[in-house]
Amino acid sequence: MKIISVTLLIAALLMGAAAYWYNTKTDEKISAKHELLVRDYSLWYGASDAKVVLVEFFDPACGTCAQFYPLVKNLLKTYDGKLKVVYRYAPLHKNSDVIVALLEALRGEEKFEKALEILFANQNIWVINHTSNLELAVSLLRSNGDINRALNDMNSEEVLKRVHQDIADANVLGATKTPAFFVNGRGLEKFGYNELVKLIEEEIKKAY
What we know:
By secondary structure, the chain is of the alpha+beta class. It has two domains: 1-37; 43-207, Glutaredoxin, CATH 3.40.30.10. It has helices at 2-37, 63-78, 96-107, 112-121, 123-126, 134-141, 148-153, 157-173, 193-207, and strands at 43-46, 52-58, 83-89, 127-128, 131-132, 180-183, 186-187. Strands 1-3-2-6-7 form a five-stranded mixed sheet. A two-stranded antiparallel ribbon has the order 4-5. The longest helix has 36 residues, at 2-37.
């Protein structure tokens, strides 16, 4: 009986250790994925303490991103206090990396939102044959005020570091098309607005 008890005890200890290792590894994976989704510098809107976080990787030259922009803003109103939206860059169109660098620089002057709205509304002017044209984009953005400082800051080490980090994170997460959405770490299995709303509501029901 003592031998059996010792054997069972060892087995229980091994199972406990395995469970601890598994949970620890799972927690590490969740933590690692969260870091890939949301960096400490990431731009966000909504409630700071929201339990549901929608992360969007976008390209200002992407037509579908432009269509979803007002829809996502409306989701913040619909789920006020329960939803936070985080914007990350995924410049997949040719030369869009310089456009997002300019947007990031404008963010430092609190001109990001208006600038993005101008770019989305006028994509047909500055996006030619799926290629972003910085000069044309700059001409449009000057209507938002003086952007000379941002034009200089867009090449700063800090701005470029953030842009490159977003691109790297998008690649690791498999965000190869824009817009790419993640809700509390869950990606859309089937792309679409209704599917996005369904995923958000599922996470809200879990959290609240």
